[in-house]
Amino acid sequence: MTKFLFSKITLSIFSILLILIIAYFNLLSNTIQELNHLGVDQNLLYLVLIIPFITLFISICRIVIGFNINAFHIPILLILSSFILDLYITIFILLAAIISGMLVKLYLTKFHFHFISKLAIILSGVSIISIFLFPILIKSSLFAYSFSPLIILYTTIVIAIIVEKYLNFQITKSKIIDDLGQIFRTLVFCIIAFLILGGKIDLYFFELQFTWLRSTIIAYPETVFVTLLLNIIIGQYTGLRLDEIFRFRKLIFKK
Amino acid sequence: MFFSKSGILGINARNLMYLRPYNKSKSIKMADNKLKTKAFLSTRGIPVPKHFAIINNPKQIANLKFNKLPNGFVIKPNLGYGGQGIIPIFKRDKNYFYGANEKPYTTEQLQEHIKDILSGAYSLSNQPDIAFIEQLITTDESLARFSYKGLPDIRIIVHNLIPVMAMLRIPTIESGGKANLHQGAIGAGIDLAKGQITHLIQKNKIVKEISGYGPIRGEKIPYWDQILEMACKCQLATNLGYLGADIAIDKHYGPMLLEINARAGISIQLANLKPLRTRLDKITDVHVPNIQKGIRIAKDMFGYAIEQQIKTVSGKKVIGLYESLEIFNKKEKVQATALINTSKKGSYLSKELAAKLGLIKNTKNKITVDEKFKLKFTLGGKKLITFFKIMPIKKKKYQAIIGNRDLSDFFLIDPRIIRTAPTSNSNKNKNLLFESIIDPVQTDKEIAHVLSEIKLLSYFRPLNLQEELDKFHQDNSYNPQFIYKNNQEELTYLNHQINKIKTSNDVVGQLFQEKIEEIKLQLKLIESRGSSEFKDISKQLFGLPSEQDYLELLKFKKIKKQKSETILSSEELKDLFEKTLKYYNLENWKVILRKNILSKCITNKNRKIFIKDACFFNEERAKALIIHELETHLLTAENGQKQKYKLFHLGFANYLPTQEGLAIYNVSKSDQTNNDDSNTITLAKAIYLADKYSFSELFHQLRKQKLTNHSALNIALRVKRGLSDTTQAGAFSKDFCYYSGKKIIENFIAENGQLQDLYLGKYSVQDLPLIKQIASPTTPPILPKWLLEN
User: Across chain A, which distance is largest between two alpha carbons, in Å?
Assistant: First the structure.
């Protein structure tokens, strides 16, 4: 009996049933409408609703495609900050944090400190450097359209997490190349996910935006449950990843 | 699902189908903890590198004494992954420790590195860690030949107690000496059945050869069965269902476990060009009762043994469509790729190859179709002679065609096999980078080292000698049962040492090879103590008196001597010895009186002569001793010291009969009635009898020959050493060398041999022509006075 209760099929059936019930009674839509009435910004609710989608994209990316990116908090943070701040500002912050952190780290390799103290100094250094970033950000009018004091706090948190995630590595050539590669891949992923989820990219001549998924999610919040189902399916995937098909092509297509 | 029919194990399938169900988190935790794994597995009989120090906290760093560490060691983080944070130190001088690529480290830098390890810079998710310092593994020569600097290791994946797939990771120039496939190290697939290298990959691409070395396909990995067994044992002990064992081969200690891996990667499939999932699927349900069975299954199911089988059934060699040839002209051999073409009758060469071999002068000249060249060549290990014609059309892929006429007798063709000749570039580099030219002085040194470790007679001293003798004294019909010390470990080590010595192809190499064979046989003799093989090996090594010899021996009669009246005490003999030594300017030898020795007089290799204290010698005996020990053994040893090779001093193969024969001959020449002779004859007789009779029967036979109780027992013991159950017939025939040597020298003299020639060092008469070629000085520096007088 316990075997049956914990089998994959049971899990799938239960989740489908649950989703059907919730969808039937429009529980989610009703709650969101209620929140709207209470004065919560719809855009903010949208940010919460897209997190399941981002996680789904990440798992597809890693499990089906084999595109090695950081899971989960860095891409979520970067995509959300692209929605809140702007894509360009996010990229700027990311690069600024990494470059400044790396400089501090490179300088510190000459000294003999405990590893934790080193990390502490790097983080402090980066957060101090970030203070000098804000005037640039504000004056360059990038912040202008949605500036609020909370955003500075948010930016600092983003910087701190990025630095801690990326800059505790050892300064060796291969390790830096590996990690920069991963940062780059994560960035590419974030931009694509950002676009799919209805983000706007200003390409100078025209604006790039796909609003289909965005409007669907806003109109039918229950679509979020689809991600749950897909996650269950992907969670049992034992086939080859796309990159593995490429890697083992000689073995696969030899006949 | 997606491409899963191809049978390839992807990361997803590995995680869900093998890691999750088979690897319990407790076991994974242990595999991640290197120190724990090492301690756990070494107590279960798996060899692991020793560790010299474990550093748990920063306080211990200051207390760590780098001076007390050996010259080579490795610093490792306990919870490290992917080879990060490991610093190997290969050598050091006063100020620096030298790591990979000769990178110098100061003590402070190493301490700093350990500090980093402790604070978690190299551990998974940066948790605080432990650092440890470990023995540096020096790679076995067989693998070191083609690896660039670093440590090559063998990864074996084991599932359900069956080794599923294996790969050798070879550090290259591109990878900077690291055995990491991502960084450009070469992964070589290994045939599980034979331990031979099959395919090579580098950066996910198939390569044919190691750049700078050449192809290594077909190279055998030493200790293969032992390695497989180790990997299986690891799984049995750790309970990891899907396990990757990393094993390196040490020069001195053989295979050693580096670490075990609970999340073994999947690129091993590329190196083997075989899918893993199909193999795993096949064996998941198999019931494997023990490790041996598991290895048997792996070899039968996953080995490429078919080729071998066809060969044994048909007696023919299996070759491929393209084969590498070695063609010989008068001076050198040239390698080329040949197309095996059964539709052609005869064999052909390309113009370029013919020019290379010096058969034609200019490739542009037209060549008449009928011109034929008779050449020797090897194909698939077979030597053949055939007539080659010149190929009409130039081909890129091959330089020769082997036709039906040369193929039909010896070969079967498997069109899947392609073996091409190495490109000429790689051959050039080969000499520069990897190939070590065999230095005879080094070989000599290595042999001398092994010799210094073998004290042959010490292995044949029974542990229970006294007890068994007591039993024999009570009842003279009792046959002693001897027990010997178990030296298995030591023997394995010595065997390994001797097997790895390489010799050159010249005269010196030939002499060394003979010596190596002799040492191998000696080791085999030691190993066979107490077994039925013992007497056969002893016979092979030292010889046995034949029936005819025995009849001759019986003819000898003891001549009653007129004992001279002068009796010398031990001290007086010592003075006499010292005088003689002074005469030959050998004052660096010391004469020492000692009580507890068996023989009356012994010389050892450290320039010391021991005389039994409180003994008396008549004058003839003293003279004989001087001739035997000083003027023969000691002079040859001294002369040997002055030669280039140590073996002149330590003795070439089979030197003993010649040495002893020479000594006996010298003694008998000076005095016809000497005791030496009768001893020799008694011993030879005893050996003949020991080969026919049991211990007690031998004793009684010797008693019949008018020997005293005491000396009969002594001789019986001497020739029955090495046997366990002395009811059996069989003899330890080392002492036969006295008699056989005497005959050898007599023959040598009869054939007008010069005694001076035997004084260059210690070697056998048979080797004399070769010895003369390599000896320098070519004449013995010191000769006994009576030889000089002649």
Answer: 65
> Hey, which bits of B293-351 come out as E strands?
317-319, 322-328, 333-340, 347-349
Helices A73-84 + A149-166 axis angle, to 10: 150
Residue B336 three-state SS: strand
Residue A199 contacts residue A209 (beta carbons within 8 Å): yes
Cβ contact A248–B119 (<8 Å) = no
In chain B, the N- to C-terminal Cα span, in Å, equals: 96
Tell me the C-alpha distance between B647 and B268, whole Å.
47
Long-range contacts of B222-225 (CB under 8 A, 24+ apart): B222/B140, B222/B142, B222/B249, B223/B249, B223/B254, B223/B255, B224/B194, B224/B195, B225/B195, B225/B295
Beta pairing, strands B347-349 & B382-390: parallel
Q: Distance (Å, rounded) from C-alpha B290 to C-alpha B285?
A: 15
Q: Please choose, from the candidates B11, B251, B70, B56, the residue with its C-alpha nearest in 3D space to the C-alpha of residue B147.
A: B251
Q: Do A248 and B112 touch (CB under 8 A)?
A: no
Cα-flanking dihedrals φ and ψ of residue B138, to 5°? -100, 120
Structure confidence by residue, pLDDT tens digits, A179-215: 788 889 999 999 999 999 988 888 878 888 888 999 9
Say whether B16 and A170 touch across the interface (CB within 8 A): no
Supply the ipTM of this predicted assembly: 0.80
Query: What phi and psi, each to the nearest 5 degrees, are found at residue B380?
Result: 55, 35
Tell me the sheet residues that pair with B412.
B318
**Cβ–Cβ under 8 Å, residues A255 and A248:** no
Q: Does A110 touch chain B (CB under 8 A)?
A: no
A233 part of contact set with chain B, CB < 8 Å: no
For residue B519, give Cα distances in angstroms to A117, B131, B496, B525, B542. Answer: 61, 43, 12, 10, 12
**Cα gap B119→A116, rounded to integer Å:** 7
Q: Which helix (H) or strand (E) holds B376?
A: strand B373-379
The DSSP line for A164-202 is HHHTTS---HHHHHHHHHHHHHHHHHHHHHHHHTT--EE
A115 in reach of chain B (CB within 8 A): yes
Instruction: Let me know if B321 is exposed, middle or buried by CB neighbors in 10 A (0-12, 13-18, 19+).
Output: middle
Cβ proximity of B92 and B168 under 8 Å: no
Task: Please give the average per-residue pLDDT across B218-229, as a whole number.
Answer: 89
Closest Cα in chain B, distance from residue A13 (Å): 21
DSSP, residue by residue, B476-543: TT---B------HHHHHHHHHHHHT----SSHHHHHHHHHHHHHHHHHHHHHTTTSTTHHHHHHHHH-
Task: Report d(CA A9, CA B609) in Å as an integer.
Answer: 89
The two tokens of residue B490 are 């030591």
Give the pLDDT confidence of B442-500 residue by residue, as tens digits: 888 888 888 888 887 788 888 888 888 888 888 888 888 888 887 777 787 788 788 87
Q: Is the bond leading into B777 cis (omega within 30 degrees of zero)?
A: yes
- What is d(CA B316, CA B331) in angstroms, rounded to the nearest whole number? 30
Nearest CA in chain A to B13: A238
DSSP H helical ranges for B8-93: 11-13, 20-22, 25-32, 34-42, 58-63
B41 token code pair = 């597995």
Q: How far is CA B459 from CA B355, B441, B523, in A?
A: 61, 29, 10
